[in-house]
Design a protein that fits this description.
188 residues; alpha+beta; 3-stranded antiparallel sheet; 5 helices; 6 strands; 23% helix
Length: 188
């Protein structure tokens, strides 16, 4: 019932339960690569300066002039949830699937090292999305689409958007979607 080959037969019933809810896909709100027009190798200045924007970059934080950013200027002054655009590619178990998400403060941007998973006017809602991105449930749904180390917006296609005024846990998500005990064991 979808255009993606599902590698695990056990996953099909779980995916059908999620799709039955007909919710918006998180992929629609995850940014493209280079959300602010900066490549991974680009670095900001080491120290802040007048009117600088904090730049989350490969290897840490730098500072850039707002005029050096192109694209998504409207996101700069919001809280944003950032996720590494590449997974580890490691065969370690358990597989991390996605890198560690974090909340970027207003007056910030990032290089293509990260994608923007969502933006908010308040930190609490951003934290709720950040926590959602760490659930086994979400990472399992990403795994069904992700076949390389790249974690572009496309890998979030099966992930439903939640109400981020609420905190989401695996237990709450399993209950919402009617995931049974055997399916929970498979996901985890």
């Amino acid at each position: 019932g979808c255009e993606t080959f599902i590698r695990y037969n056990e996953a099909i019933s779980i995916l059908k339960k999620v799709q039955k809810m007909k919710e918006l896909s998180l992929a629609k709100q995850v940014s493209s690569s280079k959300p602010f027009g900066l490549r991974t190798f680009e670095k900001g200045k080491k120290n802040p300066f007048k009117d600088a924007v904090t730049l989350y970059q490969n290897g840490g934080v730098g500072y850039v002039a707002r005029k050096n950013l192109s694209g998504n200027e409207d996101l700069i002054d919001q809280y944003k949830v950032l996720v590494p655009a590449l997974g580890s590619g490691s065969d370690a178990f358990p597989h991390p699937i996605l890198g560690k998400p974090f909340v970027g403060e207003p007056n910030s941007a990032c290089t293509e090292t990260y994608v923007v998973a969502g933006t908010f006017k308040n930190k609490a809602d951003a934290e709720n999305l950040r926590r959602y991105l760490t659930t086994h449930f979400l990472r399992f749904l990403v795994l069904l689409k992700k076949n390389t180390q790249h974690a572009t917006s496309k890998v979030y296609e099966f992930v439903p958007v939640q109400n981020f005024k609420e905190e989401w846990t695996d237990e709450k998500l399993y209950k919402k979607y009617g995931i049974n005990k055997d399916e929970v064991v498979f996901i985890e």
